[in-house]
Fold this protein.
Amino acid sequence: MRRFFALMALVSLAACSDDEPTQPPAPALTSVTVTPPTASIAVGATSQLTGAALDQNGAPFAAATITWASGTPANATVSATGLVTGVAPGTAVITATATAGTVTRTATATITVNAPNAITVVAGAAANTFTPQDIVLAVGGTVTWTFGARPHNVIFGATAGAPTNVPTTTNNSVSRTFPTAGSFTYDCTLHAGMRGTVTVR
Ligand SMILES: [Cu+2]
């Protein structure tokens, strides 16, 4: 019986609202979009993302503020205005968060940071180090080793696709191209522990 009365109350409420003029609901923050949803940039390059907060009708909702965050800042960072900068090869998911009062909505863009085509590695003029030690290079890219007064060489491990070794060199620079994807470790055989890796992808 109680259920019956509750039902009747609902019916009369519905009837009541039918008689009143329909008021469009006030605009409310409903969604946020990020354009473009994917982008591909080189290390050091930038890409501008645009965030748009929308109401329930898909119209711009100007009262929202949008903030930006990178899921992996080691690969790509994002500024307060959505400008993405490539840091290291890999992928970063950038999140735009729209906020209006207590309502938040998020959307993401996926940024692919490509490996560079050319990298210079310094064979230490004073120290027994390759700098940078571990690098990621695009397939077909070139690494140039620069040598100072201190003699070093670049001797690759027995990996298929590794380029020709660089013999002991001073005061010069020598380049090698890497046409094959893979991880190529090398040593300076003059100095124990002096080594580096070229990851080609
Ligand atoms: Cu050396």
